[in-house]
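Why do we care about 3D structure at all? Because function follows from shape, and shape follows, mostly, from sequence. That is the central idea of this module. The next example makes it concrete: a single protein chain, its amino acid sequence, and then its structure expressed as C-alpha coordinates.
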Amino acid sequence: MKIKMNNTFSAAVARRLDELRDTTGAVTLGRVLTLIIVARNEDGVTDGIEAAAGASRAHPCRMVIVLPTESESPQLDAEIRVGAEVGLSEIAILRARGAAGDNLETLVSPLLLPDTPIVTWWVQDAPQCPSCATVGSISSRRITTARELGDPVKYLATLRDHYHSGDTDLSWAGVTLWRNSLAAMLDEPPYEPVTSGEVRGSLAHPSTFLLAGWLALRLGVPIDVVGGPNFGIDGVTLHRQSGDVELDRPVDSGYGDMKRPGRQTQRVNLPMRSLEAMLIEELREATQDTAYAEVLQDGLALLDIAGFKA
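And the structure:
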Protein backbone atom coordinates (compact mmCIF):
# COMPACT_ATOMS: atom_id res chain seq x y z
CA MET A 1 0.00 0.00 0.00
CA LYS A 2 1.27 3.45 -0.93
CA ILE A 3 -0.21 6.69 0.41
CA LYS A 4 0.96 10.11 -0.79
CA MET A 5 0.67 13.23 1.35
CA ASN A 6 1.66 16.44 -0.42
CA ASN A 7 2.36 19.77 1.28
CA THR A 8 2.21 18.19 4.73
CA PHE A 9 4.04 18.03 8.05
CA SER A 10 6.00 15.16 9.56
CA ALA A 11 3.66 15.09 12.58
CA ALA A 12 0.76 14.46 10.20
CA VAL A 13 2.72 11.63 8.60
CA ALA A 14 3.26 10.08 12.04
CA ARG A 15 -0.46 10.31 12.81
CA ARG A 16 -1.30 8.66 9.50
CA LEU A 17 1.01 5.77 10.30
CA ASP A 18 -0.74 5.32 13.64
CA GLU A 19 -4.12 5.32 11.89
CA LEU A 20 -2.94 2.66 9.46
CA ARG A 21 -1.87 0.48 12.35
CA ASP A 22 -5.31 0.78 13.93
CA THR A 23 -7.36 0.35 10.76
CA THR A 24 -5.37 -2.07 8.63
CA GLY A 25 -3.30 -3.96 11.18
CA ALA A 26 -0.02 -2.80 9.66
CA VAL A 27 2.97 -4.50 11.27
CA THR A 28 4.33 -2.46 14.16
CA LEU A 29 4.96 -4.82 17.04
CA GLY A 30 8.44 -6.22 17.23
CA ARG A 31 10.15 -3.36 15.40
CA VAL A 32 13.57 -3.07 16.93
CA LEU A 33 14.82 0.31 15.67
CA THR A 34 14.21 3.45 13.65
CA LEU A 35 16.36 3.56 10.54
CA ILE A 36 16.86 7.04 9.09
CA ILE A 37 18.14 6.94 5.50
CA VAL A 38 19.49 10.18 4.04
CA ALA A 39 19.59 10.21 0.22
CA ARG A 40 21.10 12.62 -2.29
CA ASN A 41 18.66 11.89 -5.14
CA GLU A 42 15.87 9.53 -6.18
CA ASP A 43 18.37 6.78 -7.03
CA GLY A 44 19.49 6.87 -3.42
CA VAL A 45 15.87 6.61 -2.26
CA THR A 46 15.38 3.52 -4.42
CA ASP A 47 18.65 1.88 -3.35
CA GLY A 48 17.96 2.63 0.30
CA ILE A 49 14.44 1.19 0.21
CA GLU A 50 15.52 -1.97 -1.59
CA ALA A 51 18.40 -2.65 0.79
CA ALA A 52 16.52 -1.75 3.96
CA ALA A 53 13.34 -3.62 3.00
CA GLY A 54 15.41 -6.77 2.59
CA ALA A 55 17.31 -6.08 5.81
CA SER A 56 14.02 -5.65 7.66
CA ARG A 57 13.48 -9.42 7.49
CA ALA A 58 16.31 -9.66 10.02
CA HIS A 59 15.75 -6.28 11.70
CA PRO A 60 12.08 -5.12 11.62
CA CYS A 61 12.12 -1.34 11.76
CA ARG A 62 10.47 1.92 10.87
CA MET A 63 12.30 3.47 7.93
CA VAL A 64 12.35 7.22 7.51
CA ILE A 65 13.90 8.14 4.15
CA VAL A 66 14.83 11.80 3.81
CA LEU A 67 15.54 13.50 0.48
CA PRO A 68 16.36 17.21 0.89
CA THR A 69 16.25 19.26 -2.33
CA GLU A 70 16.91 22.90 -3.12
CA SER A 71 13.91 25.12 -3.68
CA GLU A 72 12.89 28.70 -3.00
CA SER A 73 9.54 27.52 -1.64
CA PRO A 74 9.64 25.27 1.45
CA GLN A 75 7.39 22.24 1.20
CA LEU A 76 7.27 18.70 2.55
CA ASP A 77 5.82 15.94 0.38
CA ALA A 78 5.56 12.51 1.98
CA GLU A 79 4.87 8.96 0.88
CA ILE A 80 3.95 6.10 3.20
CA ARG A 81 4.51 2.48 2.25
CA VAL A 82 3.27 -0.49 4.27
CA GLY A 83 2.48 -4.09 3.44
CA ALA A 84 4.21 -7.05 1.83
CA GLU A 85 6.43 -4.99 -0.49
CA VAL A 86 8.35 -3.46 2.43
CA GLY A 87 8.78 -6.60 4.48
CA LEU A 88 8.40 -6.45 8.26
CA SER A 89 8.64 -2.68 8.34
CA GLU A 90 6.91 0.53 7.41
CA ILE A 91 8.36 3.31 5.32
CA ALA A 92 7.91 7.08 5.40
CA ILE A 93 9.60 8.94 2.54
CA LEU A 94 10.06 12.65 3.23
CA ARG A 95 10.89 14.82 0.20
CA ALA A 96 11.82 18.11 1.81
CA ARG A 97 12.15 21.14 -0.43
CA GLY A 98 14.06 24.25 0.54
CA ALA A 99 13.86 25.33 4.18
CA ALA A 100 11.67 22.33 5.01
CA GLY A 101 14.85 20.24 5.00
CA ASP A 102 17.13 22.65 6.84
CA ASN A 103 16.96 20.80 10.16
CA LEU A 104 16.66 17.05 9.64
CA GLU A 105 16.43 16.32 13.37
CA THR A 106 13.30 18.43 13.71
CA LEU A 107 11.92 16.92 10.50
CA VAL A 108 12.22 13.29 11.60
CA SER A 109 11.57 13.64 15.34
CA PRO A 110 7.78 13.00 15.19
CA LEU A 111 8.45 9.74 13.34
CA LEU A 112 10.96 8.20 15.74
CA LEU A 113 9.83 5.05 17.53
CA PRO A 114 9.91 5.44 21.33
CA ASP A 115 12.36 3.40 23.40
CA THR A 116 14.24 1.94 20.43
CA PRO A 117 17.69 2.69 18.99
CA ILE A 118 18.05 5.20 16.17
CA VAL A 119 20.37 4.36 13.27
CA THR A 120 21.21 6.83 10.50
CA TRP A 121 22.53 5.66 7.13
CA TRP A 122 23.79 8.10 4.51
CA VAL A 123 23.16 5.88 1.51
CA GLN A 124 25.10 7.94 -1.04
CA ASP A 125 26.95 10.51 0.96
CA ALA A 126 28.07 11.50 4.44
CA PRO A 127 29.00 14.59 6.38
CA GLN A 128 32.64 15.00 7.34
CA CYS A 129 31.65 14.48 10.97
CA PRO A 130 28.68 12.04 11.09
CA SER A 131 28.14 12.47 14.84
CA CYS A 132 28.02 16.27 14.42
CA ALA A 133 25.21 16.16 11.85
CA THR A 134 21.73 16.86 13.18
CA VAL A 135 20.39 13.32 12.65
CA GLY A 136 23.78 11.85 13.53
CA SER A 137 23.76 13.52 16.93
CA ILE A 138 20.57 11.68 17.95
CA SER A 139 21.68 8.29 16.59
CA SER A 140 23.39 5.48 18.46
CA ARG A 141 24.78 4.13 15.19
CA ARG A 142 25.87 6.14 12.14
CA ILE A 143 26.56 4.31 8.85
CA THR A 144 28.36 6.04 5.99
CA THR A 145 28.96 4.87 2.41
CA ALA A 146 32.49 6.06 1.60
CA ARG A 147 32.67 4.07 -1.64
CA GLU A 148 30.30 6.60 -3.26
CA LEU A 149 32.62 9.56 -2.66
CA GLY A 150 35.46 8.87 -5.10
CA ASP A 151 38.54 9.40 -2.88
CA PRO A 152 38.65 6.65 -0.22
CA VAL A 153 42.00 7.69 1.26
CA LYS A 154 40.84 11.24 1.84
CA TYR A 155 37.44 10.27 3.16
CA LEU A 156 38.64 7.45 5.44
CA ALA A 157 41.18 9.88 6.90
CA THR A 158 38.36 12.37 7.46
CA LEU A 159 36.22 9.70 9.15
CA ARG A 160 39.19 8.84 11.37
CA ASP A 161 39.78 12.46 12.36
CA HIS A 162 36.10 12.89 13.34
CA TYR A 163 35.45 9.39 14.65
CA HIS A 164 32.91 8.98 17.44
CA SER A 165 31.72 5.79 19.12
CA GLY A 166 28.94 4.28 16.99
CA ASP A 167 30.36 5.36 13.61
CA THR A 168 30.94 2.76 10.91
CA ASP A 169 31.14 2.50 7.14
CA LEU A 170 29.51 -0.09 4.88
CA SER A 171 32.92 -0.83 3.36
CA TRP A 172 33.92 -2.43 6.66
CA ALA A 173 31.11 -4.97 6.33
CA GLY A 174 32.42 -5.54 2.79
CA VAL A 175 35.62 -7.14 4.17
CA THR A 176 33.99 -9.53 6.65
CA LEU A 177 34.14 -12.60 4.39
CA TRP A 178 37.78 -11.84 3.55
CA ARG A 179 38.68 -11.48 7.22
CA ASN A 180 36.96 -14.77 8.09
CA SER A 181 38.70 -16.72 5.32
CA LEU A 182 42.14 -15.26 6.03
CA ALA A 183 41.81 -15.93 9.75
CA ALA A 184 40.86 -19.55 8.99
CA MET A 185 43.88 -19.99 6.72
CA LEU A 186 46.28 -18.67 9.35
CA ASP A 187 44.71 -20.78 12.08
CA GLU A 188 46.26 -23.93 10.57
CA PRO A 189 49.70 -25.58 10.73
CA PRO A 190 52.53 -24.67 10.39
CA TYR A 191 51.58 -21.62 12.49
CA GLU A 192 54.52 -19.62 11.17
CA PRO A 193 54.63 -15.85 11.56
CA VAL A 194 53.78 -13.74 8.53
CA THR A 195 56.71 -11.55 7.50
CA SER A 196 54.89 -9.22 5.07
CA GLY A 197 51.94 -9.14 2.70
CA GLU A 198 49.95 -7.32 0.07
CA VAL A 199 46.32 -6.58 -0.66
CA ARG A 200 45.30 -6.25 -4.31
CA GLY A 201 42.16 -4.32 -5.12
CA SER A 202 40.58 -1.17 -6.43
CA LEU A 203 42.30 1.99 -5.23
CA ALA A 204 38.91 3.70 -5.52
CA HIS A 205 37.26 1.37 -2.99
CA PRO A 206 37.63 1.84 0.79
CA SER A 207 37.42 -1.92 1.49
CA THR A 208 40.87 -2.41 -0.08
CA PHE A 209 42.46 -0.07 2.46
CA LEU A 210 40.41 -1.26 5.43
CA LEU A 211 41.43 -4.87 4.84
CA ALA A 212 45.09 -3.86 4.47
CA GLY A 213 44.87 -1.80 7.67
CA TRP A 214 43.30 -4.72 9.53
CA LEU A 215 46.06 -7.10 8.43
CA ALA A 216 48.81 -4.60 9.30
CA LEU A 217 47.32 -4.05 12.74
CA ARG A 218 46.67 -7.70 13.59
CA LEU A 219 49.85 -9.20 12.11
CA GLY A 220 52.21 -6.37 12.97
CA VAL A 221 54.00 -6.57 9.59
CA PRO A 222 54.23 -4.32 6.50
CA ILE A 223 51.23 -4.66 4.18
CA ASP A 224 51.38 -3.16 0.69
CA VAL A 225 48.33 -2.03 -1.29
CA VAL A 226 48.39 -2.79 -5.02
CA GLY A 227 45.78 -1.68 -7.57
CA GLY A 228 43.59 -4.31 -9.21
CA PRO A 229 40.95 -4.64 -11.96
CA ASN A 230 37.81 -5.12 -9.85
CA PHE A 231 35.82 -2.47 -8.00
CA GLY A 232 36.62 -4.17 -4.74
CA ILE A 233 39.23 -6.56 -3.42
CA ASP A 234 40.98 -8.96 -5.84
CA GLY A 235 43.33 -10.89 -3.58
CA VAL A 236 45.66 -11.11 -0.62
CA THR A 237 49.15 -12.64 -0.40
CA LEU A 238 50.82 -13.24 2.96
CA HIS A 239 54.49 -14.19 2.96
CA ARG A 240 55.84 -16.85 5.35
CA GLN A 241 59.11 -18.78 5.48
CA SER A 242 57.54 -22.03 4.26
CA GLY A 243 55.72 -20.35 1.38
CA ASP A 244 53.05 -17.82 0.54
CA VAL A 245 49.45 -18.03 1.69
CA GLU A 246 47.10 -16.59 -0.93
CA LEU A 247 43.41 -15.81 -1.23
CA ASP A 248 42.42 -14.73 -4.75
CA ARG A 249 39.08 -13.76 -6.24
CA PRO A 250 39.01 -14.06 -10.04
CA VAL A 251 37.55 -11.10 -11.94
CA ASP A 252 33.72 -11.11 -12.07
CA SER A 253 33.44 -14.21 -9.89
CA GLY A 254 31.66 -14.85 -6.62
CA TYR A 255 34.25 -17.20 -5.18
CA GLY A 256 37.78 -17.13 -3.85
CA ASP A 257 40.67 -19.57 -4.19
CA MET A 258 42.62 -20.46 -1.04
CA LYS A 259 46.22 -21.38 -1.93
CA ARG A 260 48.56 -22.87 0.68
CA PRO A 261 51.93 -24.64 0.25
CA GLY A 262 51.60 -28.39 -0.19
CA ARG A 263 47.80 -28.36 -0.42
CA GLN A 264 45.24 -28.36 -3.20
CA THR A 265 43.54 -25.09 -3.99
CA GLN A 266 40.32 -24.76 -1.98
CA ARG A 267 37.39 -22.76 -3.32
CA VAL A 268 35.30 -20.68 -0.89
CA ASN A 269 32.26 -18.43 -1.23
CA LEU A 270 33.52 -14.85 -1.62
CA PRO A 271 30.97 -12.70 -3.47
CA MET A 272 30.87 -8.93 -3.81
CA ARG A 273 28.42 -8.21 -1.01
CA SER A 274 25.14 -6.44 -1.72
CA LEU A 275 23.98 -3.30 0.09
CA GLU A 276 21.33 -5.45 1.77
CA ALA A 277 23.84 -7.99 3.11
CA MET A 278 26.17 -5.30 4.43
CA LEU A 279 23.30 -3.36 6.02
CA ILE A 280 22.01 -6.50 7.75
CA GLU A 281 25.45 -6.98 9.30
CA GLU A 282 25.78 -3.40 10.45
CA LEU A 283 22.31 -3.36 12.02
CA ARG A 284 23.29 -6.30 14.24
CA GLU A 285 25.65 -4.02 16.15
CA ALA A 286 23.82 -1.99 18.77
CA THR A 287 26.99 -0.45 20.20
CA GLN A 288 30.47 0.54 19.07
CA ASP A 289 32.22 -1.72 16.56
CA THR A 290 35.61 -1.82 18.28
CA ALA A 291 37.35 -3.69 15.45
CA TYR A 292 36.37 -1.01 12.93
CA ALA A 293 37.41 1.74 15.35
CA GLU A 294 40.85 0.17 15.85
CA VAL A 295 41.47 -0.28 12.12
CA LEU A 296 40.27 3.24 11.29
CA GLN A 297 42.22 4.94 14.05
CA ASP A 298 45.36 2.78 14.23
CA GLY A 299 45.53 0.29 11.35
CA LEU A 300 45.36 2.72 8.42
CA ALA A 301 48.31 4.72 9.82
CA LEU A 302 50.48 1.58 9.50
CA LEU A 303 50.10 1.56 5.71
CA ASP A 304 52.74 3.26 3.58
CA ILE A 305 50.20 5.76 2.23
CA ALA A 306 50.76 9.45 2.80
CA GLY A 307 47.09 10.29 3.29
CA PHE A 308 46.86 8.00 6.30
CA LYS A 309 49.95 9.15 8.14
CA ALA A 310 49.13 10.84 11.42
